[in-house]
Amino acid sequence: MSNEAVRTEASEFDGVRKLPFTIPDVYGFLGHAYVLGILQNYEECKPWIYTHYNQLYISKDYVEIGEYRLDFYPNLMVLFSNVPWLQYRQTNKDMLADLGVDIHAFLQRHIDESFYCSTYVDEYYIPNSISNGVHHFSHDLMVYGYDLNRQIYNVAIFDKNRQFSFQEVTFENFGLAYHNDTGQKGISLCRKVEPREYGGSRYGAQLGKFDLELQTMLDSMSDYLHSVNTSKRLRFYFQSIEGYYGLDIYTGLQECFRLLAEGSINLDVRPLHILWEHKKMMTARIRYLQEQGALSEDSAALEGYTRLEGEAMVLRNMLLKYFYSRNNQTLGDIANRLGHMRTAEEQVLTALVEELGRRNNLVPYQFEEVVKLEV
Asked: What are phi and psi of 54, to 5 degrees?
């Protein structure tokens, strides 16, 4: 759509514009929530979604500062501009200020052109946020709509109950939150591209197209099963990252809870939340593969990962209870159950990798170097 067409359309609309956004399957970190909150609205994005979100890792860099940050690998956040279904733009607050650009005009124009905006704000001014009216705290949010009549933006944030949610923020409050010094200057914008745009771009440019990659999916599952450092494969593009990968993340998490019981590190529920979200994604992926005929309808993997999903939810809830009780026996119980969970997942995933390979005439990539964190 041309800029002229956008302006003409804007002059005819009722002052309300809201881009498609939904509660995502992964929201333990907002960067993942932003990507999936956009893409899960579109059937054509499912092949990309289910090809990814297989591997987990805990970076050694985080471990060295006492944070056992469990996350998906590779990192597919908006900030890193590595999702083929999204077109990106990047700028920063200083650049806009130097050019005299009004942030409200900037946001609204980009939303008119179907761009979502992620930026850092001071949550002290954001209603229903954890820090609202209590203390100044820099955090990112996603703006995905506005209403000129009511003078509000539609935003996605973690609310005061620490739940990922959709909120409304007045133009005035957003301005205060945006302009207050947050120490973070970046502004990331992205737009979901249409499949037809792939053919119209030079050599495709990898926009608006991603077919289901069963071999890549199988390789990633195999990496997880054998605790392979998947980042070693991407050294052509990125520095590899040492740490716990795949099933070895259970060892990292057990160490985390031992140190937590000793008082050596701070409590963080996110690792067990991400573990639960990983099992949710595995369950959803298996169902999708069954729909595509890549797995049998009676695949035992579905029942196996459904059980693992339930167990991960139990562990997450146990840790939430520990937040109030501070009973270290709970941490010991969690560590023990993580050991049993690892054994169970190894059995289920071994069968899943074998079935997926056999049914689709595929063989997992054999990566010789299995990297484990030295402890």
From this structure: -100, -50
The whole-number pLDDT of residue 244 equals 98
Whole-angstrom distance, CA of residue 364 vs CA of residue 16: 49
Would you state the torsion angle of the CA atoms of residues 210, 215, 216, 219, taken in this order, to the nearest 10 degrees? 170
**DSSP structure string for 49-92:** HHHSS-EEEEEHHHHTTT---EEEES---GGG---TTEEEEEEE
Joined tokens for residue 24: 């995502």
Helices (H), the chain: 3-12, 30-39, 46-51, 60-63, 93-98, 103-112, 171-179, 196-200, 214-225, 249-262, 270-291, 300-325, 328-359
With a cut of 90, say whether residue 1 has pLDDT above it: no
The rounded distance, in Å, linking the Cα atoms of 107 and 116 is 9
Tokens of residue 343, six digits: 């054994």
The C-alpha atoms of residue 374 and residue 300 are separated, in whole angstroms, by 35
pLDDT score recorded for residue 236: 73
Q: What is the residue-wise DSSP string for 294-315? A: SS-TT-HHHHHHHHHHHHHHHH
Q: Compute CA distances 190 → 27, 77, 108, 124, 234, whole Å.
A: 18, 11, 14, 26, 24
Instruction: Give the C-alpha separation, 182 to 165, whole Å.
Output: 22
Please tell me the distance from the alpha carbon of residue 230 to that of residue 228, in angstroms, as a whole number: 6
Confidence (pLDDT) at 195: 82
Q: What is the pLDDT of residues 60-69, one digit of tens each?
A: 999 999 999 9
CA 87 to chain centre: 17
Q: Please state at what angle helix 214-225 crosses helix 328-359, rounded to 10 degrees.
A: 140
- Angle between helix 328-359 and 249-262 (nearest 10): 170
> CA 97 to CA 303: how far, in whole Å?
55
Q: From the CB of residue 42, how many other CB atoms can be counted at a distance below 10 Å?
A: 15
Could you tell me the pLDDT band of residue 208, with boundaries at 50, 70 and 90?
Answer: confident
The one-character DSSP state at 135 is: -
